[in-house]
Amino acid sequence: MPRMLDVSEDVRAEIGDEEADRLLAGENAPGSYDCTSCRTPGDSEQERTSTVLFVGEETAVLAFAHATCIPSQVVRVAEEQLQGAVRSITATEPPAAAPAAPAAGDQAVLGVTSGLVLIEGELHPALVVEPTAPIARPGSDGVMDEFLPLLIEQGFLPVADVNRKPAPVAGWSVLLAMGQLHAILQPGTGGGSPVAWWQAHQPLQVTDGWRAAANKSHTVLVFAAPVGSIGQQPREDLLRDALEKAAADGRLVAGSMPLAGT
Description:
Elements: E1 5-6, H1 9-15, H2 17-25, E2 32-34, E3 41-43, E4 49-55, E5 60-66, E6 73-76, H3 79-90, E7 110-119, E8 122-131, H4 147-153, E9 157-158, E10 173-177, E11 180-186, E12 195-205, H5 208-217, E13 219-224, H6 236-248, E14 253-258
Parallel strand pairs: 1-4, 4-6, 8-13
Antiparallel strand pairs: 2-3, 4-5, 7-8, 9-14, 10-11, 11-12, 13-14
Helix pairs in contact: 1-2
């Protein structure tokens, strides 16, 4: 039976016309599936469904998602990251948190914490980014921490009040795929494809509440602070207190960005 599938030109180019046509005819496509973004059930016979192809160096995985969650697309990820996603799908091992990718300057690592932030009576999904060491400006030999100025140049704005929703940052997005956090993407140079500003070595687990809030609003709030400003807070109320203190000290920037793919 034909499926209500969206197969983008990029996905078709990767899998070939013959395989794409078989999918659309319903030969190789599942009727029911778990959405690769929100992880809730979907039915390609009853609702528009996106084909999402995850491509690593050696492995490719075809997944399905509600068209209202993410569009059909090719998502290129590191082979290790894709293998981790495959293991999480087949439940051979639980998904595990991992350190972030290296940032510029002083071999710093970006630590990323997820949490829900209450703003004007509504819970918003948020990510808090804090490096493990000062971030120098690329190409400089100075010791000044330029983390916040660099982000402000990208469109992030200083936070004076955590109770106000941050303004959007143009061109940035958060990639949540297979129900896990994969990357924070920034605009490519010269108008090219988005590139990972931060990418998890392995997909990071988020709570059901965080994922539900993100899929409801399709927007994630990203806060960033210099090393030593936030720390690893075990509870969301303590994280909120740390954000408010960083904002009061002028050490917090933020922006909102869509929940999307590449």
